[in-house]
Write a structure and sequence with these properties.
Layout lengths: L1 E2 L6 E2 L16 E3 L2 E2 L21 H6 L10 H18 L3 H5 L1 E2 H16 L12 H18 L2 E2 L12 H14 L14
Parallel strand pairs: 5-6
Antiparallel strand pairs: 1-2, 3-4
């Protein structure tokens, strides 16, 4: 695979700006644009797509916000987490009262930490911790869109987090210790 000069996305090596499509994604945005996903045919063989000129809805529909890429079951699971909140606090309560970012950051972090430490399911709701964290993100984003989210984040660092510098240090550490010691994992703690 190489970066195609005409469409700027990853395409088969002999792409000349023609319409090629991934066998798993099947989303062609325009004759020169392909969404990259890494699932070409088993032998990296190209699959040429015939243009469908008969349905004008295709040309308009592909330019609208897509729901196609949202996995259905996890989204429905977020609905369960939101239903729990609706039963406990009232549906869409945050749209009236607003939220504080720090409160939801803490809730998201608690769910992620519980999941990281091996607890998949929240014992209170029986909903997966990752789903509960996602539901918290939905509430915060909705409150931001409503204009009633209290932004109580701390003062920013003058140069941001400067992740690039930290990544360079991480790369040097990996170079210095190329043979990583075996981690101690729960799955091996038998």
């Amino acid at each position: 695979m190489k970066n195609c000069k005409s469409c700027r996305y990853y395409t088969p090596t002999n792409c000349k700006g023609e319409k090629w499509i991934c066998t798993k994604l099947w989303l062609l945005l325009s004759p020169q644009t392909l969404i990259p996903c890494g699932f070409w045919t088993a032998k990296n063989e190209e699959v040429k797509v015939e243009t469908k000129n008969t349905n004008p809805k295709d040309a308009c529909g592909i330019k609208k916000v897509p729901s196609w890429f949202i996995p259905t079951r996890p989204l429905l699971m977020v609905g369960l987490a939101m239903m729990e909140g609706a039963r406990k606090y009232g549906a869409f309560n945050w749209r009236k009262a607003g939220v504080r970012m720090s409160v939801y950051y803490d809730a998201i972090k608690r769910h992620l930490d519980s999941w990281k430490e091996g607890e998949d399911i929240d014992p209170d709701s029986e909903v997966h911790h990752l789903i509960k964290a996602a539901a918290c993100c939905f509430v915060v984003m909705d409150s931001i869109l409503m204009g009633n989210c209290t932004d109580d984040r701390p003062i920013r660092y003058p140069n941001g987090l400067n992740i690039k510098d930290l990544n360079e240090i991480a790369a040097k550490l990996i170079e210095k210790y190329p043979d990583c010691a075996k981690p101690f994992l729960e799955k091996d703690n038998g």
